[in-house]
């Protein structure tokens, strides 16, 4: 797979013999001899399959329980976690290897996903919903002899041990499931401590013989996993545990508030209407039957049902305690974050918010993004280089690689493309304004001032269909504003912000916003799926207008009174092909994500005070949306010829198209400021020079526009 940049190449094989601790730590080795054990082999900075490690018949397998520092199930004893180990055969003779570790609440089975066990989404906003029924208990499996077999075939042949564990309160691990509570961080910490000789392991869940890992483990650990299993490596890393050197979280849920709420609004993950944190407790509660009643009462009832707050959706201390961003300062492990931009289950903000924080605090970090749906690990060579560098200490230069890798497949064949960072450093906001006609298709442009006045939509409520139906049919249930056809591709990179001023006819209302690509090519059925990717939804977001001042406190809306709020849509990096149009769709109930109240709430949108800040690579000059381009040879500002060549910009646009001297400006000063900003952006884009910038500003000042 082409990456577009040269790779550091290790010209010869590095063979690391056993029993030389410094060798394993540095990746520097002399030639193997007949008296040495087989060791790991590295080529091009990656651990290779070694024949002596590759035969599963020679692998050493162990099962044990590691004692933690907590008692979460109230039985008066420290909880022990069920662990299995698979390691290369030569570790029995003194070879020490690092560890790839995955932990999960799913390994021992899960509960029913029938909708009758979820919350009823046909609920009025702001009211306490009727109680939810729990699914039948998960069958306990005391005869399990191993936790999991995932990752074995990838890493054991390459000279790593692989360790798995059941999360607290699941499988044969003691404790209570807490869905983001402290024990989910401390449990994997205990396993890392055991691998370093700092925690106790036993052959039994109660009593048993002591088991040590220090005779085969180097103490260096890398964690990985997808979804919930991808959350737990980051949870462990927040403890700052020594020995956890690297993590590869794939589609991690980094905040249960951001999973089940959005900007004050009660929201479910895509494809799972009515799911909430207390259902997830039931879904994973597969632990010892004699502790389940205690856990259900103390965790699900006394904690979750008391504080999850499906009435207001407000942020509170319960949610703050399940937000890893609040603990990210503890992360020292080198982090390769992986996520999909069309993941509507664990939406991409989960990784981007952590990525931003890790960069700011100097933690080694890279990002891998793709355009698909939930899950999707980075390519094996990328993961191999990461773990080889940080677990074996091989100087393969991975820390000097580009900071972001993005799968580009929107306009051609799939290609993993390197970028200096995410968001793309060349991206700058483009302000798009709204033009009348949203009940059919109003205008969306950066080349005109916003229209005045208001437009309305009527919430479809519990009769609502999915976004595809709204985008493809004329409807009173949405407002749609669309750009002219793009005459060149547009590269979006970052977080789109929608600033909106609106009023509602009731004290509470859903607010849903989608940025769509037209013509629509995805499914447009009322029950379209959100469990997979889509090419027609560019990005989307949700908010509660009652939380326009604070995420922690809702203010009931005064019917007919306008409020202003900013709605961040989900982060994205996508190339919108030429020939497409970009649409902003404003609606209320999102059939696939929000509660479904009674229909009829009217939302009134103030066009002049509503806009979109679109992060475009290249900024405003890179927006190719000129339906009737101005091709005069020089830039003319309000009848004043500046003498500056009217150079071509993106697509068919020219500099003249961005001057907007035919618009109605409230005063001359605002127009001059606008031209000054445009000229500054053109200098930054190297379209004009400083002297030409001065000529444009001078012509604007001399004009009578706005007077």
Automatic annotation (TrEMBL):
SUPFAM superfamilies per the UniProt record, alphabetical: alpha/beta-Hydrolases (SSF53474), Galactose-binding domain-like (SSF49785)
GO molecular function: aminopeptidase activity; dipeptidyl-peptidase activity; serine-type peptidase activity
Domain of life of the source: Bacteria
Keywords on record: Aminopeptidase, Hydrolase, Protease, Serine protease, Signal
Residues in Xaa-Pro dipeptidyl-peptidase C-terminal domain copies: 384-613
Matches recorded under InterPro entries: AB_hydrolase_fold (IPR029058), CocE/Ser_esterase (IPR005674), Galactose-bd-like_sf (IPR008979), Pept_S15_Xpro (IPR008252), Xaa-Pro-like_dom (IPR000383), Xaa-Pro_dipept_C (IPR013736), Xaa-Pro_dipeptidyl-ppase/CocE (IPR050585)
Gene3D superfamilies found in the cross-reference section: alpha/beta hydrolase, Galactose-binding domain-like
Coiled coil location: none
Example GO BP: proteolysis
EC number: 3.4.14.11
Signal sequence interval, chain numbering: 1-34
Catalysed reactions listed for this entry: Hydrolyzes Xaa-Pro-|- bonds to release unblocked, N-terminal dipeptides from substrates including Ala-Pro-|-p-nitroanilide and (sequentially) Tyr-Pro-|-Phe-Pro-|-Gly-Pro-|-Ile
Pfam families xrefs: Peptidase_S15, PepX_C
Catalytic EC class: hydrolase
SMART domains: PepX_C (SM00939)
Membership in a protein family: Belongs to the peptidase S15 family.
Protein name: Xaa-Pro dipeptidyl-peptidase
Lineage of the organism: Bacteria, Bacillati, Actinomycetota, Actinomycetes, Streptosporangiales
């Amino acid at each position: 797979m082409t990456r577009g940049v040269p790779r550091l190449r290790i010209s010869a094989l590095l063979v690391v013999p056993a029993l030389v601790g410094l060798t394993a730590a540095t990746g520097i080795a002399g030639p193997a001899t007949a008296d040495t054990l087989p060791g790991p082999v590295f080529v091009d900075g990656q651990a290779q399959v070694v024949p002596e490690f590759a035969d599963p018949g020679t692998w050493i397998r162990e099962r044990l329980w590691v004692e933690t520092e907590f008692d979460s199930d109230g039985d008066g004893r420290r909880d022990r976690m069920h662990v299995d180990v698979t390691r290369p055969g030569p570790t029995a003779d003194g070879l020490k290897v690092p560890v790839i570790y995955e932990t999960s609440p799913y390994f021992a089975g899960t509960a029913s996903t029938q909708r009758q066990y979820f919350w009823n989404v046909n609920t009025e906003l702001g009211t306490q919903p009727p109680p939810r029924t729990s699914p039948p208990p998960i069958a306990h499996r005391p005869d399990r002899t191993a936790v999991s077999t995932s990752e074995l075939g990838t890493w054991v042949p390459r000279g790593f041990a692989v360790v798995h564990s059941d999360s607290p309160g699941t499988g044969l691990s003691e404790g209570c499931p807490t869905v983001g509570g402290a024990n989910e961080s401390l449990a994997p910490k205990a396993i890392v401590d055991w691998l370093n000789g700092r925690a106790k392991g036993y052959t039994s869940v109660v009593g048993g013989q002591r088991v040590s890992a220090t005779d085969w483990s180097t103490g260096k650990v890398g964690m990985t996993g997808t979804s919930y299993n991808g959350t737990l490596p980051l949870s462990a890393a927040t403890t700052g545990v020594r020995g956890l050197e690297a993590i590869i979280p794939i589609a991690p849920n980094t905040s249960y508030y951001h999973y089940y709420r959005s900007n004050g609004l009660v929201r479910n993950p895509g494809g799972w209407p009515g799911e909430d944190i207390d259902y997830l407790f039931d879904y994973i509660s597969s632990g010892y039957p004699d502790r389940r009643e205690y856990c259900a009462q103390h965790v699900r009832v006394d904690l979750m049902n008391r504080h999850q707050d499906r009435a207001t959706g407000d942020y509170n201390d319960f949610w703050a305690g399940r937000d890893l961003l609040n603990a990210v300062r503890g992360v020292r492990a080198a982090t390769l974050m992986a996520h999909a931009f069309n993941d509507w289950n664990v939406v991409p903000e989960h990784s981007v918010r952590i990525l931003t924080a890790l960069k700011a605090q100097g933690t080694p970090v890279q990002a891998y993004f793709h355009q698909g749906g939930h899950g999707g690990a980075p390519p094996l060579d990328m993961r191999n280089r990461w773990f080889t560098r940080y677990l074996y200490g091989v100087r393969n230069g991975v820390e000097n690689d580009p900071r972001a890798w993005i799968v580009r497949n929107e306009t051609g064949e799939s290609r993993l493309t390197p970028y200096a960072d995410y968001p793309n450093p060349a991206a700058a906001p483009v302000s798009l304004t709204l033009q009348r006609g949203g009940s059919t298709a109003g205008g969306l442009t950066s080349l005109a001032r916003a229209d005045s006045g208001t437009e309305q939509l009527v919430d479809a409520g519990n009769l609502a269909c999915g976004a595809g139906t709204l985008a493809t049919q004329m409807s009173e249930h949405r407002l749609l504003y669309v750009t002219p056809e793009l005459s060149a591709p547009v590269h979006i990179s970052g977080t789109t912000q929608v600033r909106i001023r609106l009023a509602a006819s009731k004290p509470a209302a859903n607010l849903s916003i989608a940025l769509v690509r037209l013509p629509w090519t995805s499914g447009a059925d009322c029950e379209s799926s959100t469990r997979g990717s889509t090419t027609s939804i560019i990005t989307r977001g949700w908010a509660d207008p009652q939380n326009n001042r604070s995420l922690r406190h809702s203010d009931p809306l005064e019917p007919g009174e306008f409020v202003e709020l900013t709605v961040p849509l989900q982060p994205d990096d996508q190339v919108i092909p030429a020939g497409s149009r970009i649409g902003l769709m404003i609606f209320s109930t999102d059939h696939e994500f929000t509660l479904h109240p009674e229909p009829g709430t009217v939302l009134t949108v103030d066009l002049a005070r509503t806009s979109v800040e679109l992060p475009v690579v290249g900024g405003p000059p890179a927006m190719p949306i000129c339906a009737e381009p101005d091709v005069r040879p020089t830039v003319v500002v309000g009848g004043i010829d500046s003498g500056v060549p009217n150079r071509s910009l993106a697509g068919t646009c020219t500099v003249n198209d961005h001057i907007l001297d035919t618009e109605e400006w409230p005063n001359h000063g605002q127009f001059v400021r606008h031209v000054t900003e445009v000229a500054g952006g053109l200098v930054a884009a190297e379209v004009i020079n400083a002297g030409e910038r001065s000529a444009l500003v001078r012509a604007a000042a001399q004009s009578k526009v706005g007077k």
